[in-house]
Write a structure and sequence with these properties.
There is one protein chain. The longest helix has 12 residues. It is built from five helices and 13 strands. It is 23% helix and 31% strand. The strands form two sheets. Strands 2-1-3-4-13-12-11-8-9 form a nine-stranded mixed β-sheet, with helices on both faces. The chain has a four-stranded mixed β-sheet with strand order 6-5-7-10. It has a single domain, classed as Class I glutamine amidotransferase (GATase) domain (Rossmann fold). By secondary structure, it is α/β, with parallel strands linked by helices.
Length: 203
């Protein structure tokens, strides 16, 4: 059974529908005391990093996620959920994240853009797989996925399993032991997004 964390920040139903489409059993979970009972958990999210961390802290979910990460069972962060896995974000000042993967979240540096590029980064773009990952099993090394974000992850290359290009290279997928994350929206990415979710359910 897979638990999707409900903390009032995101695209829960669309992620739930995508998982149902590939035949997975899913619960929406708002009680932090119940996380440990699931085989896998997914941390989705849309919105601001600071608001998300405040929600996770206020209801006890922050500590429960950290405890779950120590269990060895798979944990997946999607979009903002991926960013929350990192140590901190510069969005609306400095905010500490969950700290499960070394790295931080920064705003796109528009000084490196040409005049045609806008923020947010929105639409279809390629994710270039950097090394073997269970998330991308039986997939091409270049995967088209759907993105919507104004801030992006930075982390050591040892944890960067996917990168994308928008004005410059940025980290678009991370992995450390049983912890996984990717920036694009799988529920908006058609077959490729569903395949990634399917791969996660089979880890």
């Amino acid at each position: 059974m897979i638990g999707i964390i409900d903390y009032n920040m995101g695209n829960l139903r669309s992620v739930e529908n995508a998982l149902n489409k590939i035949g997975s059993s899913v619960d929406i979970v708002s009680d932090p005391d119940k996380l440990a009972s699931y085989d896998k958990i997914i941390l989705p999210g849309v919105g601001a990093f600071k608001d998300a961390m405040e929600h996770l802290s206020s209801n006890g979910m922050k500590e429960s996620i950290k405890e779950f990460s120590k269990s060895g069972k798979p944990l997946l962060g999607i979009c903002l959920g991926m960013q929350l896995l990192l140590e901190s974000s510069e969005e609306f000042g400095h905010t500490k994240g969950l700290g499960l993967i070394e790295g931080k979240v920064v705003e796109f540096d528009k000084s490196k853009f040409d005049h045609r590029l806008k923020v947010p980064h929105m639409g279809w773009n390629e994710l270039f797989v950097q090394r073997d990952s269970k998330l991308f099993k039986d997939m091409k090394r270049e995967i088209y996925l759907y993105f919507v974000h104004s801030f992006h992850a930075t982390c050591p290359d040892e944890f960067a399993v996917g990168k994308s290009f928008y004005g410059y290279d940025f980290v678009s997928a991370v992995e450390k032991d049983n912890i996984f994350g990717f920036q694009p929206h799988p529920e908006k990415s058609h077959e490729n997004g569903l395949k990634i979710l399917k791969n996660f359910t089979e880890i």
